[in-house]
Amino acid sequence: MEAMRQLQAKRVVIKVGTSTLVYPDGAINLRAIDQLAFVISAMRHHGREVVLVSSGAIGVGLNYIGLKQRPKAIPEQQAIAAIGQSELISIYKERFAVYEQKIGQLLLTRDIFVYPKSHQNVMNTFEALLAQNIVPIVNENDTVAVDELDHETKFGDNDQLSAVVATNIDADLLIMLSDIDGFYDGNPNGDTGATLLSHVAKVNQATYTLAGGTGSRFGTGGMVTKLKAAERMIKADSQMVLANGADPTIIFQILAGEPVGTLFG
Ligand SMILES: Nc1ncnc2c1ncn2[C@@H]1O[C@H](COP(=O)(O)OP(=O)(O)O)[C@@H](O)[C@H]1O
Ligand SMILES: N[C@@H](CCC(=O)OP(=O)(O)O)C(=O)O
């Protein structure tokens, strides 16, 4: 049996991918959202500070307007994100309210981490929300994010956004929930012999060669962006656990130090 893990987890960032929030047929996974609200509210009551980075604007938006596929054109994608984000946050608000937990919404672009005053204001907002026991829920501001000339505002994926947020607010731990049990030594979506790695101490070029692309129709990052997030966390002397979000109460097991998923760092 594998040893229990020793994790620092006073300040925790949780990232949930579209695959955790939206079923493969496009329907919204309300059970997962409800469990997230339950787990995060319980964590708050145990004195932990929690930030949720949630994807799902596009996935929820597609469901809301009855589309099965993400359109190719950027303006349409941005319109769907606008529709989906407001729906997503109202679902979160309703589910967190069941546990008497208040939330706040932060829609971020990459440039706020470049401009010192913007950066300071965002950090102040995080600190003020956490001090008032409010759970910040973060997503990329998809409707304004672009990459043009010297105006680059796009993260493009929430895996890296979650690690940037986590390192900027000095979080001890990033918990990344996806549709897979952890990091394998090959893409399990095709390589049936791939085995789960319980601990990855360092992320280097050899680690990247084991990573493949996204598994779901709605997700964007795939494993490469998760490894980039892990690399960023390790460089900041923090840790990341990648685990399956099919049942978000797995977060309790992670916090208890049980060897589930993959620990990076
Ligand atoms: N080495 C690997 N280990 C685990 N999963 C991998 C690996 N390489 C590629 N993948 C794929 O990455 C997917 C998770 O990324 P993604 O679809 O972007 O999820 P999310 O929506 O949670 O961000 C998995 O379902 C799997 O198909
Ligand atoms: N900002 C986008 C999420 C992009 C993204 O990184 O998605 P995912 O790979 O599911 O975490 C949205 O809310 O749809």
From TrEMBL:
Subcellular location: Cytoplasm
Assigned keywords, A-Z: Amino-acid biosynthesis, ATP-binding, Cytoplasm, Kinase, Nucleotide-binding, Proline biosynthesis, Transferase
Enzyme class, broadest EC rank: transferase
Molecular functions (GO terms): glutamate 5-kinase activity
Catalytic activity: L-glutamate + ATP = L-glutamyl 5-phosphate + ADP
Gene3D superfamilies assigned: Acetylglutamate kinase-like
Residues where substrate binds: 55, 142, 158
Residue numbers binding ATP: 15, 178-179, 220-226
Role: Catalyzes the transfer of a phosphate group to glutamate to form L-glutamate 5-phosphate.
Family label: Belongs to the glutamate 5-kinase family.
Stated name of the protein: Glutamate 5-kinase
Species of provenance: Lactiplantibacillus daowaiensis
Lineage: Bacteria, Bacillati, Bacillota, Bacilli, Lactobacillales
